[in-house]
What does this fold into?
Amino acid sequence: EVQLVESGGGLVQAGGSLRLSCAASGFTFDDYVIGWFRQAPGKEREGVSCISSSDGSTYYADSVKGRFTISSDNAKNTVYLQMDSLKPEDPGVYYCGADYLFRLAGLGDLISPERYRYLEAWGQGTLVTVSS
It folds into this structure.
């Protein structure tokens, strides 16, 4: 069974940092692209970043470029999202999602609005709150 479990959310002041973790199990980690998404109350889910576990290639949404860093530890089957310089517009429930690499048109396809609704696996989410 494919499983993704997020952790690391919490309350942080604007300008601060948090690191989220997504632990994966039930599939061959190197064959998948894993991404982070967020959803604020009353808003659509938004793709934030993704990484190809096979070669470490990364992709970021413009809204987080230069502030967030995605990485993976293939030995632990875990993907991380380091979030720095957090802004008041960053809070929400952060989810990780995954899909088989060869189902995607390209790396960024995983977090595109047209594609993410069809991902193979989702985690349960972790809440990030940013105080101003």
User: Anything to note?
Assistant: The longest strand covers residues 92-100. The mean pLDDT is 95. The chain has no helices and eleven strands.
